[in-house]
Amino acid sequence: MNSKLPKSFRTVILCSLANFVNQADRTIMPIALVPMSNEFDWNLQAQGWILSSFAFGYISSQVIGGSAARRWGGKWVLGFAVTVWSLATFFTPTFARSLYGLIFARICLGFAEGLGLPTIFHIFANTVPMEERSRA
User: Fold this and answer.
1) According to the model, what pLDDT value does residue 136 have?
2) DSSP assignment string, 30-83
3) Could you give the C-alpha distances from 82 to 114, 115, 134, in angstroms and in order?
4) What's the pLDDT at 108?
5) How many CB atoms neighbour CB 103 within 10 A?
6) How many CB atoms lie within 10 A of CB 125?
7) Closest to 109 in 3D by CA, of 76, 86, 93
8) Residue 2: pLDDT above 80?
9) Buried residues in 25-45 as b, exposed as e (16+ CB within 10 A)
10) Are the beta carbons of 123 and 78 closer than 8 angstroms?
């Protein structure tokens, strides 16, 4: 019995999983900031820079994400974005020893995550048939 899932369903599941990881990565730092501030002795201004640096990267990559997906294909751009945001998350503890290093990692994380949603919407628009979109 071979009950292979339709391609559009697999696409929606994989993109939803990528978006779940995207959202999880973005919400971790505000939670971790309090104990990290105590450990690294960051004042409120430094905490503000750490949290807002994500937004600088995120806002700057929204249009780029849609354009890149149209030019190179959503699968490649989303794969690049997931790789970059995973590396930025993985190296965050290492970069946290330097305030500027952590801000750089947060900008990279925001930039890569900003590529995510426009790319996912591009993938949906090009792979999910019109009659299935209301269920996707």
Assistant:
1) 64
2) HHHHHHHHHHHT--HHHHHHHHHHHHHHHHHTHHHHHHHHHHH-HHHHHHHHHH
3) 11, 9, 26
4) 96
5) 19
6) 13
7) 86
8) no
9) bbeebeeeeeebeeeeebeee
10) yes
**Whole-angstrom Cα distance, residue 48 to residue 106?**
12
Number of other CB atoms surrounding residue 65 within 10 Å: 25
97: buried, middle or exposed (CB in 10 Å: 19+, 13-18, 0-12)?
Answer: exposed
d(CA 63, CA 69): 10
Q: What is the pLDDT of residues 39-88, one digit of tens each?
A: 999 999 999 999 999 999 999 999 999 999 999 999 999 999 999 999 99
Are the beta carbons of 119 and 66 closer than 8 angstroms? yes
Confidence at residue 3, expressed as pLDDT on a 0 to 100 scale: 61
**Residue tagged 């959202």 (tokens):** 23
Cβ burial of 110 (10 Å; 0-12, 13-18, 19+) is: buried
Provide CB contacts within 8 A for 82, sequence distance 6+: 18, 21, 112, 116
Q: DSSP code of 132? A: G
